[in-house]
Specification:
- Helix 1 crosses helix 2 and helix 6 packs across helix 7.
- A hairpin with a 5-residue loop joins strand 10 and strand 11.
- This protein has 303 residues and is of the alpha/beta class.
- It has ten helices and 15 strands.
- Strands 2, 3, 4, 5, 6 and 7 form a six-stranded parallel beta sheet that branches. Strands 13-10-11-14-15 form a five-stranded mixed beta sheet, with helices on both faces. The chain has a two-stranded parallel sheet with strand order 1-8.
- The chain folds into two domains: 117 residues, 3-Layer(aba) Sandwich (Rossmann fold); 145 residues, GTP Cyclohydrolase I, domain 2 (2-Layer Sandwich), CATH 3.30.1130.
- The protein is 32% helix and 27% strand.
- The radius of gyration is 29 Å and the shape is elongated.
- The longest helix has 16 residues.
């Protein structure tokens, strides 16, 4: 079986368009189901009119994805015909343009028949085409592959195997029981789930340990993991503190994430450099016990 991707399709449709040319034809008609997408792409490349109903004319080119037995071709013998593939045993009559002879079962990506899902590369190529680009031009030919690799890096939060283990240590095992605030800060990058645009900035985290101390690098790692999903800031801060709560059981914790949201800056409101802030507060910080929340906020404001 051949799993025919959109990358394969984009290469072949250009070949088919060159073979058809514009001489003698004014319109293309796609055979229902199999030929619809091929006809749309062919019309786009050749500039021919895309029509949805047939009438007798030598200026109409009928389009399908495949000639197999030839029975579909027989229904349109009064018209010139174009397709991507023919089988070696196909019965071909009249004028037929095609790209290749294939002696195998072909699973076209647009059929979505459950045999195999399209890849990220296929979908990126289709997206490029839908905005009016040519995925095969020199600057874009490797873009789908690069985007697929980039997405695996960006969206690590969907892969359970990439979830960091939160290393903890018994509080006081070295003879010192620590019951003051521990803090961490750094940067984060995530993507808004509404438009898949980045939001990014700085985080400030503090907690007061009870029986366990969290490994110093793990706060940043767990923030990176949950940031590696399509997110909203309100959910993100709560997922991070909930994860730490379940593992470390601190007396209290506070996480502030603030930064820029490109949904506001690049589109819609278009307010450049307009910061957002999301906060999650738990335990003694929520109660401001012994002024711990005030102390945390004071330390941030003095940096």
């Amino acid at each position: 079986m051949i799993n025919y991707s959109i990358v394969d399709f984009n290469k072949d449709i250009e070949t088919l368009a060159n073979r058809v040319g514009k001489v003698g034809y004014k319109a293309v008609y796609g055979v229902p189901r199999g030929g619809i997408y091929v006809a749309q792409a062919l019309a786009h490349l050749t500039g021919l009119e895309l029509i949805d109903s047939l009438f007798p004319s030598k200026e109409i080119l009928v389009v399908d994805d495949l000639i197999d037995s030839g029975r579909t071709r027989e229904k349109y013998l009064d018209f010139a015909f174009a397709c991507l593939h023919v089988k070696p045993h196909s019965k071909i009559d009249g004028i037929v343009y095609h790209v290749d002879v294939v002696d195998d079962w072909i699973n076209y990506w647009w059929e979505n028949n459950g045999i195999e899902q399209t890849t990220i590369e296929d979908n990126v190529a289709r997206l490029l085409e839908s905005i009016g680009e040519n995925p095969l031009r020199t600057g874009l030919v490797d873009t789908p592959k690069r985007v697929a690799k980039m997405y695996k890096e960006f969206f690590c939060g969907y892969d359970p195997e990439r979830k960091p283990n939160l290393t903890v240590f018994p509080n006081g095992e070295d003879g010192v029981f620590y019951n003051e605030m521990l803090r961490d800060e750094g940067y984060f990058f995530s993507f808004c789930e509404h438009h898949i645009l980045p939001f990014f900035g700085q985080y400030y985290y503090g907690y007061i340990p009870d029986k366990l101390i969290l490994g110093a690098s793990k706060i940043g790692r767990i923030i990176d993991y949950y940031s590696g999903r399509l997110q909203i800031a309100e959910r993100l801060v709560n997922q991070v503190v909930s994860e730490i709560e379940e593992t470390v059981h601190p007396l209290g914790q506070l996480l502030i994430m603030n930064g820029r949201h490109l949904c506001k800056e690049m589109r819609g409101l278009k307010k450049w450099n307009s910061p957002f802030e999301a906060i999650a507060v738990r335990g003694c910080f929520a109660e401001n016990r012994n002024g711990c929340k005030d102390e945390f906020m004071s330390r941030i404001s003095n940096r």
